[in-house]
Amino acid sequence: MINENEVSVLKEMCSGLSIMIVEDEINLANEYRELAQYFFTDITVVNDAKSALEKYKTKYFDIIYTDINMEYMNGVELIRKIKNQNPKQAFIVISASNDSNHLLDLLKLKISTFILKPFQINEFIDATAEQIAILQQAKKMDDTSKQLKIELKEVNKEKKTQEEMLIQQSKLAQAGKMISMIAHQWRQPLSSITTQIAVLKIRLDLDYYDNSESPFEMLSSDLYDSFDKIEKSAIFMSDTINNFRNFYRPNNLIKVFNLRESIDRVLEILMLGQNNIVIEQDYLLSENIMIESYESELQQVFMSLLNNARDALIENSIDNPMIKIMTSTNHNSVNISILDNAGGIPKEIINDIFLPYFSTKNEKNGTGLGLHMAKTIIEEHMNGSLNVSNSKQSKGACFTIKIPTEKEENV
Question: 20 to 30 A Cα–Cα from 399, which one of 72, 313, 328, 407?
Fold first, then answer.
């Protein structure tokens, strides 16, 4: 006996769904159509598997009802071919009781809903409701997955924005030191310029040239000599600015650059020789290691690591302070090690130094962003690794960078 409530519920569940019925016996196919019309409005009926495949090329079906024993191509082969195109396609198999020899094949194809011939309408309702419930659950899971992907994309976007802000904040945190370095580099050439001008002015005030035998020639000689020295000082000051200006400019462009030249530019900016620090550079295998990546960001990492090494050497009053830079290639990657002889990092904090806002420089207004952003840049932006250890050989810290020589896409 038909339960009108079940029919009503199934009609509501079937609303908007599209089905295809595959049955080679025409009379049965017509009966299935009449039954399906109680519930579905979009019904396609075909009488062989080949026609079903042709229809499937041009139309989407939520559920396919198919017989098993058909001429030319049986239902199992039809299901296999469609599953190869769309593994998620839903099927309900209408089979005779003697089709059990196909059961194992159907289970391998993940077919679990069957209607045995001859069947009653209640069996059709139950099988259809079961399959629609599976479809609805799958759709719900798919919608949830899509929403999670959207939310994850937004989180990653926000994270990237925050990282870019932190990178710039980290750069600005070093601005004070950089300005001090520029001021230090400019002090001598500015002093030279003012000295040259002062000497000329004093000589003019004291009538130095008027009292000479050849005042014009002597004045011309002094002027040209002073101009030459002033010009050299101005060029030096201009070169100093050129070394610094790109460091603070946001730059996310991927480029191919020479690793040694990039490191040398950072060393020129830092002027570690002013602190009597000896720089040892050991370039194994090749001095012309070329890298395709973010040069500006990699230079910021070098800046942070070298600045930390210098600070440690100065704070610990190390005799014969030394920083050693070692590079080598390995297949499609490059290893860069920066070592010092400042005594190393205490064991109780060595595992924390890459944490954001962790700093041992409170008295010097340390931000605790330098090493954290260095690790973020190397590992998340450049698909590499940044690790630290204490070196017995150098008697100090050893920071090791490994990055691919060619830009890899983040997964």
Answer: 407
